[in-house]
UniProtKB/TrEMBL annotation:
Cofactor: Zn(2+)
Pathway this chain belongs to: Purine metabolism; 7-cyano-7-deazaguanine biosynthesis
Name of the featured protein: 6-carboxy-5,6,7,8-tetrahydropterin synthase
Keyword field: Lyase, Metal-binding, Zinc
Reaction it catalyzes: 7,8-dihydroneopterin 3'-triphosphate + H2O = 6-carboxy-5,6,7,8-tetrahydropterin + triphosphate + acetaldehyde + 2 H(+)
Organism: Ktedonospora formicarum
Length: 170
């Protein structure tokens, strides 16, 4: 094993990307006082976890990380991504439906087709933050004492991606 010199810093990370780490969903965002038309994306997700080596010489088990992330993707797949906290949208729910209004335009979605998300807007940035939070909740069941950060990237298209990084310690 290599001797670490004083002042040297080692950093390690594991990354999962591709495969089933994706979801195909409908959405629109509000921005610049406007509301986009309803459309969809084939979103891709990547996760990077930084930290030191644990007892088994893993930063974190890829297999577990993939399964947890895949499960979160499944909850979003083939659904309309509803940002529950968007102040520009008028949201009305009934037992079976969500009605969404913006400046006199209205959409109605069956509840079962909707992913109700506690976010302000379904931008790639907010989706990355949501997925990161959901992943951190799931990771509570595991020993994460060696981890220093978790980053989630959400790709709307190969040309555009947003990241959210949560640092667990300095
Ligand atoms: N930083 C961000 N910018 C934009 C986001 C976002 O989430 N984060 N989202 C959008 C829209 O949702 C839009 O769907 C982006 O799609 P895009 O493919 O860019 O739309 P265009 O039709 O303009 O581009 P084409 O490449 O011609 O398809 C906007 N910005």
């Amino acid at each position: 094993m290599r001797v670490v010199m004083s002042g040297e810093r080692i950093s390690r990370k594991v990354k999962i990307e591709g495969g089933y780490l994706n979801f195909s969903s409908a959405h629109f965002i509000t921005y610049g006082g406007k509301c986009e038309r309803l459309h969809g994306h084939n979103y891709g997700v990547l996760v990077e976890v930084e930290g030191s080596l644990g007892e088994d010489k893993l930063v974190f088990d890829f297999t577990i990380l993939k399964r947890l992330t895949k499960d979160i993707c499944k909850r979003l797949d083939h659904r309309f991504l509803l940002p529950l906290h968007n102040p520009q949208l008028e949201l009305t729910s009934s037992e079976d439906n969500w009605k969404i209004g913006f400046n006199g335009k209205h959409y109605m979605f069956p509840r079962e087709d909707v992913a109700e998300l506690p976010i302000d807007n379904s931008t790639a940035e907010c989706l990355a933050e949501y997925i990161c939070g959901a992943l951190c909740d799931e990771l509570r069941a595991y020993d994460t004492s060696n981890l220093t950060s978790i980053m989630v990237g959400v790709e709307e298209a190969p040309t555009q991606m947003a990241y959210y990084k949560w640092s667990l310690s300095e």
